[in-house]
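User: New here, any thoughts?
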Amino acid sequence: METGILRLSFKGYSPPNGKFQIIVKALPVAVDIKRMVTVNFSAFRKDNIELRVAFNNNQIPSATEIAAMEFMIEISKFFSA
């Protein structure tokens, strides 16, 4: 993990290739109302999905801070007809 980046993967993950699409929905779990967090999709990488994390004041959390955070993440995979 690196500053401001959250990477995730799952068994059988591969980036979308035209035969299927992936939709990623991510929400931070609000623990500290004074340090609200935003999560944005960044990219589909070869081995993972990359999300960007920031505090509401645009400060970038460290890898240690991100590791201590909780997120609700939903991933949907849709195949083309």
Notes: The radius of gyration is 14 Å. The chain has one domain: 5-11+18-79. The CA atoms of residues 50 and 69 lie 16 Å apart.
